[in-house]
Amino acid sequence: MNRGTEGRVLLVGEGNFSLSASLVADNILSGAQMVTSCLSSQVSVQEAHENAQESIEYLAKSGATVLFEVDARELHNHEVIRFFEFSRVIFNFPLADRHNIKKNRALLSDFFSSVVHILDPHKGQVMVTLCKGQGGTPADQPLRSWHNSWQIVSMAANAGFILREICPFSQEQFGGYKSVGFRFQDKGFNTNSSLTHIFERAKVVTVDDIGAKERCYFSQGHQQFVVPSYIRDKLDRWSLLEQPHHPMATLHKYLSRNLQMLCMVSILQKDSDKLPKVLEGYRSSLSSIDPGAVEEVRMHGCLHDEDVMSKTLERIVSDKSKSSKDMKNMQNLVFANLSGLEDSCADTAQCAFSNPVVTEEDEGHAEVKSEDVTRRVFTHGVSQDTVNGKPASLQNPVGNFHEHSTDVTATKLKALSSSVFVVWKAANSQTSLTSVGCEKDTASESPVVLQGAQIQSPDDTLFHLRCSLLENLPHIAALAESNNKSCRTFLVTGSVFNKCAISSLSLPVSHEMLFISFTSDLRVDDLINHYRATLKDFVKEDIVTVQQEECQVGVCNKGFLSDFLILQTSETSTVLGHVFKYQHFQNPGSLKGKEQELKLLQTSLQGVGMLLYLEQIVLAATKMPDVRLLWSEDHRFLNQFHEPSDIVTMNNFKPFSLYPVRFVHDVSFWENPERIFDETDFFDIIRDAAGDIVTSVALLDKFNNLETGKTSRCYRLVFQAHDQALSYITSWKLQCRIRLEIAQKLGVELR
Prior knowledge:
19 helices, single chain, alpha+beta, nine-stranded mixed β-sheet, Rossmann fold, elongated, BirA Bifunctional Protein, domain 2, Alpha-Beta Plaits, seven-stranded mixed β-sheet, 26% helix
C-alpha cells in the first residue's frame, strides 16, 4: 500500500480520510491521481469523526477528488467513478456486520464483482486490508477454521481475481493515519497482525455447455487421426520445448549443448516424420520379455539350417521344465520374430510393431505347432489371421484391453504404461460427434465399439499415441544402419502420451529426451558419470543410480533393452531418467522356401542409451508444486524466467497465485454390472470434462451389496487452479458435468 504507482488510485470505505491524507502527505501518491470515497454523507462524516474536515480540506487542496455516499458494491454504477479506469483500488478494513461473517463475505464478493469493471485489466491491483485472522489464508496467525473466516481468496475468485501477495499492515507506516470504526464509532480498533491482500486479474475458469463438440484431429504426414479432446487441447498449445524463456525449453537447450560436449551427436528434428507419434496397434510396442527366451534366440538365431531352426523352435515350445509363463514368453518371442518381417522392415517410418505377449485366446495352450507360426502375427496383442494375406476383422480387442495386458514394464520404467491412448483414422465421410472422444459415422452402418474413451471400428486399423520415445528406437537404429560409418549417435526430444492417475506430479502428455549411441567408444559408465554431474548442478541434489532388478523389455520385433539403471535424486528419490543397453536386430534378408517361414532376427547393432524425463527434472530444479504450471498461459509464469541467467543457478519457482482454494466434491455410483470398471477410463472422462482443474482423485470407499450383487464406489475429487481464478460455483458445475459424463460413458448408476 505504501508503494507508488502510475495511473489513478481509488480508495473506498474511508472513515475519517486520514489514510488518504497520509498517502498524499508522505508522497506515496499525488493528490491529482487520487479518488477517495466513503459510504456516509459529508455531514455525517464531519459530525462523527474528529479532524475529518481537516483531512478533507487537505485532500481537496492537493487536487484529490473526494466523494461521499459511495457504495463499494456499486462502484461500476457510480456517476463519477464509472468513467475512470484505475490502476489501484484500496479497501481498508471493510465491515458489513460485526457478528455476521456471511454478510462480510457477501460484501467482499460484491466489491470484487464491481471493481472488476473499473480496474485496469492488465496492470490493475486491488488491495484489501483485514484484521488478524479474518482472511482465512495460511498467512493469518493464528489461522482460523475456513468456515470461521471471510474466505477472501474465494470471494475474489468469484470475480476473476487471484491473490498475488500478502503484506503485513502497520499503522505506524502512515504518520497521520488513525483507525476509526470500532463498534461503528469514532474509536480506534486493534490493527496488530493485520494483513493487506493484493489481488490481480487472471483468466477465469469457465464451464462449457455440455453437448456436441467439434471433432478432434491430429495430423501425421498426410493422414488425420481422431484423438481425445484433452490430448488435442495439449497439442494445440505451443511446444513447451520451443517457447522462449520457458524452463522446459531452457533445460532442453542446456542438455543438448551438454551432450554435444560429450560426443558427436546427430540431433533429430523433434517429432519428425521419421519418428512418428502415432504408431500401429492399440498397444504399446514395449513389453517385458523373459531373458531366457532372448538367450535362445541369441544362441540359435544365426543358424540358417532349416532342420536346426525347426528343432530349436520345437525344443523351446516343448520344454516341459520351463514354467507356463516362461514357455509363453519364449513362444511369443519367436512368433513375433518369424512372421511379417519383410513388410515391417521395408519402411522404417511405418514399422509394424509386434508385441511379444500372450493374448487371452492363447491361455491354456501348452503346445504350439510350428505351422501356426506362418499364419499368426501378434501385433500389439491383436491376433490377425493372415492365411489369405489379409487380416481378419478384429474381435473388439479394446474391450478386453486390460485383460490382455501382461506388460509389467510399468514397474520398471516410469513412462511405460500398459494403457495407451487409442486413436483411429479420420473417415472421409461426414461424421457427427456424439460425445467427447466418441464419434459416430453417419454415412456408414459399421458398428463402433466403445470402451470408455477408446473407439474401434472393426474394419479400420487401430493406432496408438507413443507412450515413450523408446518406441522409436527401431526407427533410429534404421537411420544408424543407413549412415554406415558416419555419425551413429542420436539425440531426440519429443512429447509422449500415457494414461495415468490424476495427481500433481504427472499428466497424460509429457516430454522425454532420448540419447542413444551405437558406437563402441561410449559406455554406460560414461553416461552415468557425465549426467550425474550435469543433473546435480541443475537440481541442486546428488544424483544416485539405482540398479533395477533384472528385466528386459522388447521393442517391437526388432530388439530389446536391458540392464536398466535409475537416475534419481538422493533426497526426494525423484526419478529423472534411466540408463540402459539396447540390442537391435536386422532383417535376415530374402530367404526361400521354409527358410522364409522360419527366419530369425540376427543381432545387428548394440548401443547404450539414456532416457530423461524433462518435466520431472524441471519440477525437481524449481520446486514447482504442480506440473500443470508448466502449461500455464499466464504471462506471470514466464516473467519469472525472463531474466538471463546461467541455468545452473535457476531460481526456485515463486507461485504467482497464492493459496489457491481447493474445492472438494465427492461422487458415488454403482458400477455397471455388464462391464469391468476401469479407473483409467474414469480418469480420462474427468479430464475431458474438466481439463486440468481436477488435481486429485482418490477412492474413499468401495463395497459390495450382497443382496443385489452391485458394487459401489465413492471418489473424492479436488478442484484447484494454480494460475486461474476458480470459484466454488464453477467447481460445482464441473462436478455436475463430470457426474453426467461418467453416467453416460461408463453406464454407471449415480447415487
